Amino acid sequence: CATYLYRFRLSGAGRPEDVRPLRVSQVPGQAELVGPVGGFDLLAGSADGSTVAFVTGTCHSTARQAGDVGAISLRTGAVKLWSFRGAAGPFDLSLTTDGAVLGMITAPSRQVKVAGQALNSLWTVRTSSPSGPLARHCHLALAAHGRNAELDAGTLSPDGRFAYAVMSYLHARSGWRRVLDRYNLSTGRPTLIRVLQRRGDIGNPVEVSTDPSGRYLLYDGDTYGQRLYPIVTMIDLATGRLGQLPRIPRDLAGEAW
């Protein structure tokens, strides 16, 4: 089996036009075979148009999670593949503007499990790294701290200096608290951007992405599990101003700028 990759441009009405295969149009495996519950964004492109990253699952594998994280250079046609096995299939892919660094949420080197779920962290790999095992070439960028903390979603900033992450914290009396933070990857220090949920049961999966300028951020997800449609919110990181996108289909599975 294989996954086929295409590129297109959007018309003024938001419809795809000029659909054509990428320079490397076929990669091994299938995207449908990877990703944990709530795991999305198995495809990413760099803002300068030089690099495309993807995740695919190994066809006919007996492992619950086995496959490759890949990066394609659209300038040279070179393809890098980093293989993984284990319970935490990579998701939430993001690339720096120049395509040099790929970020993802996964647990490639330590298969740590809590209540049957893989404990995920934000890891990075340089796209210039040679092909091989993912665990050998990736580096830990951000982890959830504390026994009752979970990293739900994360993305690199365009320059790779920061990460935007959704963290959930379980409190014995009030339930889950979910926040959106910006982390300085040099110091590990967080800056709170917004509280998404203050108490109660944990909501549906949340995703985050930044625009190429690094000024605007999108996050989506029904944080209380009660709405019929997901709410996509845009934050102006310079002013803190919020805006909401029009109602979108319930089965939203990814977002990008």
Keywords:
2% helix; mainly beta; four-stranded antiparallel β-sheet; 257 residues; 1 helix; five-stranded mixed β-sheet
Terminal CA distance: 29 Å
* Average pLDDT for all residues: 81
Note poorly predicted spans.
110-118, 223-229
Major sheet strand order: 3-4-5-6-12
What is the H/E string?
Answer: EEEEEEEEEEEEHEEEEEEEEE
Number of helices: 1
Largest sheet: 5 strands, mixed
Decide which structural class fits the backbone: mainly beta
Report the sheet-strand fraction: over 45%
Rough shape?
globular
Number of strands: 21
Radius of gyration: 18 Å
Helix content: under 10%
Detailed description of the structure:
With 257 residues, the chain is an all-beta fold. It has 1 helix and 21 strands. The strands form 6 sheets. It has a 5-stranded mixed sheet. A hairpin with a 5-residue loop joins strand 16 and strand 17 (190-197). The chain is globular and about 50 Å long. The two termini are 29 Å apart. 36% of the residues are buried. The model is unreliable at 110-118 and 223-229 (pLDDT under 50).
